[in-house]
Specification:
Elements lengths: L13 H5 L4 H8 L8 H9 L6 E2 L5 E2 L2 H17 L3 H12 L11 H6 L18 H8 L3 H9 L13 H14 L9 H22 L4 H30 L5
Antiparallel strand pairs: 1-2
């Protein structure tokens, strides 16, 4: 075990300090069960508040055995149950309070509709698919507006003519932007940028999706969500920087 600090024989905290390990050691231990885990993944989970390692005076992360086990639990729930981070956090917090919390079931519908790490849940339709009237009601828009969104490829109906949860989210946001005078034609550059970012993510996860190990292929979907979250955060930060906006 990595010894990160030293202490004298009379130091009552030496035993606990000796159990603290670096992020590199954490990565090595986790990779025995999760071969695709990366340091960026661990840092991402820390940024999302799912694990809180200690920091040295120099700012280096130091993880306790409990931190390492918590990370392993999180990765298992993502890999085996496809649970979003919000649900994982609530489950682990309940366990920490001593509650007898059962692991939530994860069905195909919930997987599609639960908020990802980059998008908070919103009020509105909760079915896996909604009809045209439901989408119009959710976005507070009319037929003419929806037709324009579809013409520019911003909102795309499913083969059966319905719309999924992502289409509802896009419709709401496009409608809000329209109230500021931004028309669908103004959003072509945004759509093109999103498609380029999606292509970049696909390049990263393509080797995982082709892997022989089914767990590795399943991990590809979690990686897509993580990369999407980072991409959105970067995009927001760059826009704010370009506009000179500082949020405190």
């Amino acid at each position: 075990m990595l010894r990160t600090t030293t202490g004298g024989a009379g130091d009552g905290t030496a035993g606990a300090a000796d159990q603290l390990v670096s992020i590199g050691t954490v990565l090595h231990r986790l990779r025995e069960e999760f071969p695709e885990v990366t340091i960026s993944k661990i840092r991402f989970l820390e940024a999302e508040g799912l694990v809180e390692p200690q920091r040295t005076a120099s700012g280096y992360r130091k993880f306790s055995p409990a931190d390492v086990e918590r990370l392993a639990q999180i990765l298992r729930m993502q890999r085996d149950h496809y649970l979003p981070l919000k649900v994982i956090r609530e489950h682990l917090d309940a366990l920490a309070r001593g509650e007898q919390a059962q692991l939530p079931a994860q069905g195909p519908q919930r997987e599609r509709l639960d908020a990802g790490p980059w998008e908070p849940a919103q009020d509105g339709p909760t079915a896996a698919r909604v009809g045209r009237e439901e989408l119009l009601a959710a976005a507070d828009a009319g037929e003419e507006e929806l037709a324009a969104w579809e013409a520019y490829g911003l909102v795309v109906p499913l083969p059966d003519g319905g719309y999924d949860a992502e289409a509802v989210t896009v419709a709401r946001i496009v409608a809000e932007l329209g109230r500021f005078g931004l028309e669908p034609r103004h959003l072509r550059a945004v759509k093109a940028a999103a498609e380029r970012e999606a292509g970049l993510v696909e390049q990263v996860v393509a080797p995982l999706r082709r892997h022989r190990n089914p767990q590795t292929r399943a991990h590809a979907e979690a990686t897509v969500k993580e990369l999407a979250a980072l991409s959105v955060r970067l995009h927001a930060a760059l826009v704010q920087t370009a506009l000179g906006v500082r949020l405190h």
